[in-house]
Amino acid sequence: MGASIHTWDLPEQVCMPRGLAAVRGQVFILYHPKRPSLERASREAQAYERLRDHFGEMNLLIWVGEPFPPPPTEVRDVYAKAFRAGPPVSSVAWIVDTHLGTSGSVFTSISTQMFVPGTKVKVYREPFEAASWLAGLENSKATVDAILDGLDALDRA
With 80 as the cut, is the pLDDT of residue 5 above it? Predict the structure, then answer.
């Protein structure tokens, strides 16, 4: 199966290549068990930019399995460009699979390079907590279960 179609409360159908990213409501989900390569970041960035015709704004969930070393500058720049060219990002939940202290500070700092000022950013260790926060946002149009399903689908891909 090359692509999967998901229509969870979307204004239109949105197709994503299997394993690249997931969309649930107005939540764009990225899954990085390893630090993303420039090629992977470019593919994810292109997918995000294509969403501008479907959504007025988006929230992001980004799962990071290996936070150190953080993504190199050229990878962060690719994401920053896409997040400015695609639908405006209103909120970002990072899930960092390690001790929260140091990595929380690092990913909060990285967020200032990747997202426009005023974007709400939170760093979590547990997927349920991140999904709960995003689902509770007025503009997410997604349930906790739908968001976790998107993350699980990427984990299985």
Answer: no
Q: Which pLDDT belongs to residue 139?
A: 94
Provide the number of structural domains found in the chain: 1
One-letter amino acid of 21: A
- Asked whether the beta carbons of 139 and 126 are under 8 A apart, the reply is no
CA proximity to 105, closest of 146, 60, 68: 68
Q: What whole-number distance in Å separates Cα of residue 41 and Cα of residue 144?
A: 26
What is the dihedral sign for C-alpha 36, 32, 110, 60? positive
The parent domain of residue 80 ranges over 3-156
The two tokens of residue 134 are 């995003």
The Cα–Cα gap between 28 and 22 comes to 6
Q: What is the pLDDT of residues 81-113, one digit of tens each?
A: 999 998 999 999 999 977 656 778 888 899 999
CB-based contact 25:9 (threshold 8 Å): yes
Which CATH number is 87's domain given? 3.90.190
CA distance 146 to 43: 23
Q: 3-class SS at 88? A: coil
